[in-house]
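Q: Hi! First time doing this. I have a protein sequence and I read that you can turn it into a structure. Is that right? Here it is:
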Amino acid sequence: MARDSQASAGYWEIVQDALADLVRIMLVRCYDADNYPILHNHCRNLRGQVWLCAFPNLFITIAPAEWKFPRPYCLNPYVYCIFASAYFMSLHMYYVVRTIWLFLANQWGHKFFIVLEWCMKTEYQGRGTPHWHIAAWVVPYGLLQLLAGRTGTAIMSAFVKFMASVFACEIDVQTGNGRLNYINGYVSKDHDAVDVGLGEYVQKNAMSSWLAAYRLLSKSTPCLPEVAIRMAQLSEFERSYSHVLLFPPQPADMVDFEGRQRNFSTRMYGIFSQEQKEITDGDNALTENFLTWHRTREFDATSETILFRGGRHQQRQKVTLVVACRYWYELTDGFWGQLVITQLPHVSAADILPHSVQHLLSMRNFAGMLEYLGQADINGSLFVYELEQHISKWMIKWIRSLQ
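A: Yes, that's right. Below is the predicted 3D structure, encoded as structure tokens:
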């Protein structure tokens, strides 16, 4: 239940995992000249800095002021009723901002840029007025830096002036730097909603018990705009993609049948392994890893089998299909096991475990990965061979840095 609530930390952890997979998808699209020619041609002018398009590169903050925001005609009877007008105006702002952004994010674009993917977060200012943060993957029709700007400053871009005239509010536009830190800071602000402690309430004469209990339950002070949006059951986080969950298993647990029946992710891996075996039996090369394969499929608990979410070549007409996958801590061998089983094409989990290489038990997954990469020619996977070359170069640089 907490995972499905937007006031919980678990919800935003899933959002971060889904955005991480969306970055992987956008990185592949940057090299896809057939399906995404506009993005591919734009990346050719970045001089190798493809990460500027793989990560969100445009961040927009819309902070409306209720006394300047365009008011609907039906609000006139409630002008002298503060609580009613605040309730009504909050819903009006929500729908107006959402509608105009969906118009700007159409697949054909407009005079400033073309939006490929986006996500929008609703937050509330100190006085309770809602404001919105938008992170988008865009292809501009010029220099991306020319879109940046902020209202109230000496120099404003044409895009900032356009947004300010449309919403009659404060606008802040920033460009990305090839990182996800900016958006992670915004989508994780609600972590404190459930991470409560008793330290400030056990002190004597601090506050009355009923107020302490109330703050422990809510950990927030909602104003009328927040109440209006939540009572209407409107989403405070909207996105252009659709995600499913994946709990990456460990290779050693996926060798036997019992281990592949623990949860829906392990059962999905069993079906994936069977399909890969059929591919290799037909003398065909492996082209998909478990994570890529999972994007177009999901597990149906009723029929205990997989359902297709859509085809890869239909993502221009439908929402992008991503997988929210959270790995272990990066310095553990369990992280390498999860990374290999989801990112490397293989037939079964036994193939990516060590067989002839001497290793410590605490480095079993890492040793299995090196042994599997050394057999890239036998496996017949071009992707594995390219990844082997990349990891080899990375390890050489890492060893030289230690000298």
